[in-house]
Amino acid sequence: MSLDTVELIAAVEDFFAFKIPDTEAEQMGTVQQIADGVCRLRGGGATTPSRIRHGCHAAIRRELQAALRLAQRPDTAVPLAQVLPAAAAHWNPVLAQLAARTGWQLPSFTDPRPPATSWLGRLFRAEPGRWPDWRLATVGDLVDWTVSLNYARFYHGPDATLPYDVLRIVVGIVAERAGVAVWEIRPEDSITNDLGLD
């Protein structure tokens, strides 16, 4: 394991207040594997719905309805593109308003970049080839990203044992350590190959 990965595992251990054995840590190569390992080692894994997700979900739906003057609250499965302006420049002020009203940190988006077309552009492109398009996400994804951004506020590490909660915490910690936006992190992402932690 590289130094960045060791520091990531140490940050996870610090938040959850327990030690991950080296033999387990060596097997944790993706975001999901870290979350699963934490749940397994701490005896979590219950299928009880997360009260944090439920509360955040209700607040974001309510605030989106108010901010965008929608006739009804958007459902979890509704694509963001159906509710929001297409460009990040128009969407980020809406998020700033929601953040001010809730006191939570919300994601800030950038418009997706088209893939480089020339071989020279592909060779020297600084962004990853899998640049995600947040507009393909849903209101439920926005809730998940918000929970991850506010994990230190919403959770007391030693008490978090539900798989959803542990995954959201791990995504938040990975985002901080890797310097990657939460909306760019997927559970199946490799810590080294996809997120750049050596």
UniProtKB/TrEMBL annotation:
Name of the protein: Carrier domain-containing protein
Q: Which organism is it from?
A: Hymenobacter gummosus
Please indicate which superkingdom the organism of origin belongs to: Bacteria
InterPro entries, alphabetized = ACP-like_sf, PP-bd_ACP
Where would I find the Carrier domain in this sequence?
A: 1-42
